[in-house]
Specification:
Layout (H helix, E strand, L loop, with lengths): L1 H23 L5 H23 L5 H27 L2 H24 L5 H18 L11 H22 L8 H27 L36 H30 L2 H8 L3 H11 L6 H18 L2
Length: 317
Amino acid sequence: MLSAALALIGAVVYGSADFLGGLAARRLRSIVVTAVAALSGLVALALVQPLVGGVWTAADVAWGVLAGIVGVAAVALLYACLAIGPMSILSPLTAVVSAIAPMLWGLLVKGDALAPIGYAGLAVALVAVVLVGFIPGESIVRPNPRGLAMAVGAGLAIGAFLIIVDQTSADSGLVPLVTSRATSGVITVAVVGILALVAMRRGAPARSVLAVAGPPLGAMPSGHADLEHAAEPGRMTTTARWAWTLAVLCGIADAVANALMLVALRAGDLAVVSALTALYPAGTILLAAIVLRERVAAIQWVGLGLALTAGGMLAVA
């Protein structure tokens, strides 16, 4: 029951991190948001690690580094496939694959065993993932093979991240997450640095690789939305400062979600945690409805209801 509850809460927090990162990406390049989130998450985890404790072993550090590499690949493939679209198909496909891969690993390789209600709960959870992640539109566009391949790859990478973290020892504390986030930070910062050098070679300022033009952030404090051009030349605008703040908060939220996921894995079964963690779009949808006043489709409400049902079924499995 504890594992299922933590996994559900972690899914909502993951979705919240995606929401914050999505808003930040309206003004900052996605790779920049990823780099800032990796660094802020690293700081948060590093501050908490001494309080939690944990043994630093070569094996756990190695698993953490591998998880960091896989995590960067997952984010890159996810952004790439969503950019190709259609999101209404590729988003739930990614979530379902990210759940099925570790579910199969847990049930077939690790030997996780559930009560009959637990297996039924896994099935309900997969249906809920599809419905929650479905974004209805007026017309249906068939995804091309490249987009489908990237969506499956992103799902497999996310699932692999869960499997890798599940290999770490119970007495390692947050060590695997700290090393994972450090690895992600090094990789993404290096990518941003390379992009800056390329821009400078082309005669553009290095900071040109940081920001992009986009729609209003939507989550700025009241009265600040009109301050895009209020700053003096050479100084950061209010909107830009708010975007950087959102990127930092995204990293902290993601670190919290990772910690919840890690505790859930150590308290329960990989198959259960992966199925419930894949419901992360629920957090994004709920925040978008509350903060941005976006409409939640009826089919998504059904998915949210099924998600709670699945959580209850898996909690008693």
